[in-house]
Amino acid sequence: MRISVIGCGYLGAVHAACMAKLGHEVVGIDVDERKIAELAAARAPFYEPGLEDLLREVQETGRLSFTTNLAEARGSAVHFVCVGTPQKKGENGADLSFVDAAANGILPYLSPGDLVVGKSTVPVGTASRLAELVRKEQPGAHLVWNPEFLREGHAVSDTLNPDRFVYGVVDGSEEHPAVSILDEVYSAPLASGTPRLVTDHPTAELVKTAANSFLATKISFINAMAELCEAAGADVSQLADAIGMDDRIGRKFLNAGIGFGGGCLPKDIRAFMARAGELGADQALTFLREVDAINMRRRTRVVELSRELCGGSLLGQRITVLGAAFKPESDDVRDSPALSIAAQLQLQGAVVTVTDPKALSNAYQRFPELNYEADSGTAVQDADALLLLTEWKEYCDLDPYELAVSVSSKRILDGRNVLDPSKWRAAGWTYRGLGRS
Ligand code: UDX
After folding, report:
1. Residue-level pLDDT at 437
2. CA dist., res. 186 & res. 196, Å (int)
3. Neighbouring C-beta atoms of residue 376, cutoff 10 Å
4. pLDDT tens for each residue of 83-136
5. Is 147 a pocket residue for ligand 1 (Cβ < 6 Å)?
6. Which of 382, 313, 373, 319 is nearest to 346 (CA)?
7. CB 3.0-4.6 Å disulfide test: which of 1, 41, 165, 432 passes with 196?
8. For position 303, which CATH number holds?
9. Does ligand 1 lie within 6 Å of residue 264's CB atom?
């Protein structure tokens, strides 16, 4: 099938490459000329494992091209809208200007029978509004909401083998003509057993925000337990293992630490609250305010613990932060808790050096005032304290004996609870975890 993908960021670039991998003829479109030039040269404009190899592989087939010219969407049967919906400046709501621009931009190029397929995370009600625009311009075309659940760092495999597909169509009916077209787009993963659900527009939009809110709630729940564990002298990692053995609870997303960040969970729960307010259902989501507050409290807690670790004052203390990305296997620093903690420590008088295998250039753009060092061996040299804030494998595998000769004081704060406290203590380190006695 001929497919256009509008918006080539984390979501769209991966989606375009994966659709070509599934055998479709794909054009990726974005207003950012630099991004398009990179993608056209089979280079990923951001770090995502496996993406660059995939771009090279599918571009050799001639099935994937990139352009800044939206008119090249003409002739595609399916147009995926993959643009960002960031948080509005100074407000909780989502900024829909990119979605609106993409939807309006595609209208002149639609033919009867075409699908406009929204994948971006949007406030409930957006799809119905856009469907009306499409209907007015091209009554034979259809708007579908088909949310994306991919995780950064696993984006290629999540797109090729998702947990489920959700198709939101105007009448919520399996018989809607858009259903068979999307089935053709996703024929390979469907054939290998991926389930799919057909819903109406608002349900499809809500599936995405509800899923992200649940994940955020799970993380804040375990972080609230971490606060209690600290107060009571208990261990939150063991607690998570034990409650996670109950199938109804499950162990995933119960890792206590410095909390969630990134370009999705924080802004999605805020936009969800804002939208619930507009719908007069704000009470239903007031708990998300607490989820957000617990999450932000983690960052303050780490600053306090760092002060304790440094003997009561941060002034002049050389602190090395291991990890800047919001999670490992990503170079994304949007709302990264690690970076926000590093900046707070610096503001409070510490001399902070940040290291990360992939995210340093993004981190520098966000907080140019911090010191950055790409080589982790150099970064830890003469440190008064180490803070492990993003659980890259190379940091989880650090050897406390080897590291001891580099640092000035053997103090480590494990912000992700990924190190073995007994091993580090046996090597003479002062170890602090979060929610661990
Ligand atoms: C998330 C959703 O998982 C994905 O389905 C959706 O499409 C986009 O948003 P992503 O932002 O890539 O994906 O990251 P995710 O793996 O969900 O992690 C989010 C944050 O939560 C990270 O900062 C991570 O470090 C943190 N986290 C995750 C925890 O603190 N504890 C956990 O147990 C799990």
Report:
1. 77
2. 10
3. 19
4. 999 999 999 999 999 999 999 999 999 999 999 999 999 999 999 999 999 999
5. no
6. 319
7. 165
8. 3.40.50.720
9. yes
Reported pTM: 0.97
DSSP 3-state assignment of 26? strand
Q: Which pLDDT does position 85 carry in this prediction?
A: 97
If asked whether residues 142 and 209 sit together in one domain, one would say: no
Question: Mind listing the pLDDT tens digit for each residue in 292-348?
Answer: 999 999 999 999 999 999 999 999 999 999 999 999 999 999 999 999 999 999 999
Last residue of one domain, picked from the residues 138, 159, 194:
194
Same domain, 189 and 247: no
> Is ligand 1 within 6 A of the CB of residue 323?
no
Ligand 1: distance of its center to the CA of 122 in Å?
Answer: 18
Whether residue 78 is found in the same domain as residue 147: yes
Same-domain pairing of 338 and 416 = yes
For residues 16 and 157, state if they share a domain.
yes
Catalytic residue among 8, 82, 229, 264: 264
Say whether both 314 and 211 belong to one domain: yes
Average confidence (pLDDT) over 49-53: 97
Are 190 and 228 contained in the same domain? Answer: no
Q: Are residues 370 and 426 in the same domain?
A: yes
Q: Which ligand 1 atom lies nearest to the CA of residue 252?
A: 33
Count of domains forming the chain: 2
Own/partner contacts of 398-407, CB < 8 Å, gap of 24 or more, are 400/424, 400/426, 400/427, 400/428, 400/429, 401/427, 404/428, 404/429, 406/377, 406/380, 406/381, 406/382, 407/380, 407/381, 407/382, 407/383
Distance between CA atoms of residues 409 and 319, nearest Å: 10
Domain of residue 50: give its range. Answer: 2-194
State the Cα–Cα distance between residues 325 and 336, nearest whole angstrom: 6
Q: Whose CA is nearest to atom 20 of ligand 1?
A: 260
| Ligand 1 neighbourhood includes 149 CB (under 6 angstroms) | yes
Active site annotation includes 264? yes
326 in contact with ligand 1, CB cutoff 6 A: yes
Write out pLDDT tens, residues 139-187: 999 999 999 999 999 999 999 999 999 999 999 999 999 999 999 999 9
Average pLDDT over the chain, rounded to an integer:
97
Q: Is 49 exposed, middle or buried (0-12, 13-18, 19+ CB in 10 A)?
A: middle
Question: What is the arithmetic mean of pLDDT over 276-292?
Answer: 97
